[in-house]
């Protein structure tokens, strides 16, 4: 089965990192389904049944987004709240549609990696900041995998650095 890449970026056309990642992903339509929810739902009204069926057609799910105020973009939170429903994503006797699916994150952070170290500016790692996603995956029985990241998106990114990271992202996805 293919990997579902759920892209959550409110300004993808203005993005450097996420846009480059998407442009690379679409070169592999046999491996990846790229699903841009800001493009799909500009009004914020999510078709829950359609989203659930799309997930069911894939064995791996990647949430790809830029870090916003040390969290995810607001439409991702809404999407999770509405799509991961009781009786579908979790529940005592039913709701196991995400069980054993591979679940991971691809995150771009505006600040530099050293700022996410215990001795850095924010004293918390990106792994710590993303912990709610790991706990959510475990709660629904998904197989949470280590995240992929790009640090320093707010700064001038060289073409070489961008290409190296993009190739690393594809390698990361192929390791599934």
UniProtKB/TrEMBL annotation:
Gene3D superfamilies: 3.40.50.360. GO terms for molecular function: electron transfer activity; FMN binding; NAD(P)H dehydrogenase (quinone) activity. Pfam families: Flavodoxin_2 (PF02525). Residues 1-170 form the Flavodoxin-like fold domain. InterPro entries: Flavodoxin_fold (IPR003680), Flavoprotein-like_sf (IPR029039), KefG/KefF (IPR046980). Signal peptide: none annotated. The keyword Cell membrane does not apply. Keywords: Oxidoreductase. PANTHER family: GLUTATHIONE-REGULATED POTASSIUM-EFFLUX SYSTEM ANCILLARY PROTEIN KEFG (PTHR47307:SF1). This is Flavodoxin-like fold domain-containing protein.
């Amino acid at each position: 089965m293919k990997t579902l890449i759920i892209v959550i970026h409110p300004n993808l056309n203005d993005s450097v990192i996420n846009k480059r990642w998407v442009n690379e992903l679409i070169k592999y339509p046999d491996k990846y389904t790229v699903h841009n929810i800001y493009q799909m739902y500009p009004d914020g009204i999510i078709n829950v049944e359609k989203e659930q069926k799309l997930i069911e057609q894939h064995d791996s799910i990647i949430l790809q987004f830029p870090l916003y105020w040390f969290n995810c973009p607001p439409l991702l939170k809404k999407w999770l709240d509405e799509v991961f429903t009781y009786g579908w994503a979790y529940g005592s006797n039913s709701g196991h549609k995400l069980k054993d699916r591979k679940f991971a994150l691809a995150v771009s952070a505006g600040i530099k990696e050293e700022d996410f170290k215990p001795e850095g500016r924010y004293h918390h790692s990106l792994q710590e900041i993303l912990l709610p996603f790991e706990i959510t995956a475990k709660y629904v029985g998904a197989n949470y995998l280590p995240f992929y990241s790009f640090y320093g998106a707010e700064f001038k990114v060289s073409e070489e650095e961008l290409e190296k990271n993009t190739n690393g992202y594809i390698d990361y996805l192929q390791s599934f």
